[in-house]
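FW: tagging you since you asked about this chain on Friday. Here's the raw sequence from the shared folder, copied in full. Didn't touch anything.
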Amino acid sequence: MTVSVPPAAPSVTALGHLPVDAERWPDVARLPRASTLRTAIARRILARAFARLPLRTHHGDARGLVPRPATGEAGSAQVGPPTLTLHDPDAFHRRIGADGLIGFGESYMADEWDSDDLVGLLTVLATHVDDLVPAPLRMLRSAWVRRRPAHDRNTLEGARDNIQRHYDLSNDLFARFLDPSMSYSSAVFDTLPAAPGAFTAAQHRKIDALLDLAGVREGTRLLEIGTGWGELAIRAASRGADVLTVTLSEEQRALALRRIAEAGLSHRVRVELRDYREAEGQYDAVVSVEMIEAVGAEYWPTYFAALHRLLAPGGAVALQTITMPHERMLHTARTHTWISKYVFPGGLIPSPDALVRESSAAGLSITHDTGYGEHYAETLRLWRETFVQESAAVGALGFDRVFQRMWELYLAYSEAGFRARYLDVRQLRLVAADAPGASR
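HL: got it, structure written out here
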């Protein structure tokens, strides 16, 4: 589903208290067809699960509930468990009965449920994700999941479409909630929780750690796979490196070129609209920050083979990647999820096991591996708080309330994954397996 700016004269369906553009959000604007039996099963399973979990449920139209600070936020004081408020219980259970977790997300987009502590609630659910369905009923999970659509495959053409559907939304949108460095990946903070005003320094700390892992210095020939908005390229060029950075996002490339020029570094940095599979030459260092998640498992062998091919003798690769447990990754790879439908089409988070297997098969050896998931939780907290505070400005850019609820859920869902240690983020250094000192 493309999440571009809505048309000027949308066809609006009044769903509860929230107007929904039926052309832009067809699966949110209408309730799915679900059998009475499936809806009843979903209602019973969820009631049993919620009764065992540290959360409260409330039925009724409790819109306007004052949100509490999310779990783990600076200065927060927990007052009992988070509350799941069902504004429309029938619609909530019907959507989940029809589409499982996709329905759970679409129900939030439709304003059919809410919480006074969205991150806290999602953290509870993420922590107990394998316990939500009773063991005897887990064999029925396949009835509630769908396979990923073929058009989301990351072919050369498909990858461009998938990247553009997220990163080409609007540079102004991202500027509303990212820090001034325009870094859209985990920061590394000096202290947790983050001190006021420490966000950009923490993003620079992350970038510098990656450049150090890759050995980037004066005269280094650096290839960056995944430009973002140019901050890493700027810091590498400031060290005296000669940088080629490639991206599939036209919006990101345009702003990155402007920021690089404003930094006076255009003579050291080239920004090309190119797939990593089309990159040529050899480089002393290759850096890629949270880009492998967009590659897709089908193309991980191609991705790591490209890293090996592009790496000059004696060079090093520095990667930053989100990870998830291996069994969960295998399940997610087979499933069309709410995230893959609305936020990151074609994406898949790898497991540590998959990273070792795929890099080794390509002739690369991991010589450094550091994780700091709690720093990503803090990064996401800062993004989410700013995004919510900027609601009016985001709306003025043309992004409606359904979109804003979708993104608030995406940011909160991601934060909860790290708080529950369901997700992690790692910095890796890779070298050719036959290079001196290649053993981990």
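FW: Residues 172 and 433 are 43 Å apart (CA to CA).
HL: agreed, and The domain at 151-432 is CATH 3.40.50.150 (Rossmann fold).
FW: great, closing this out.
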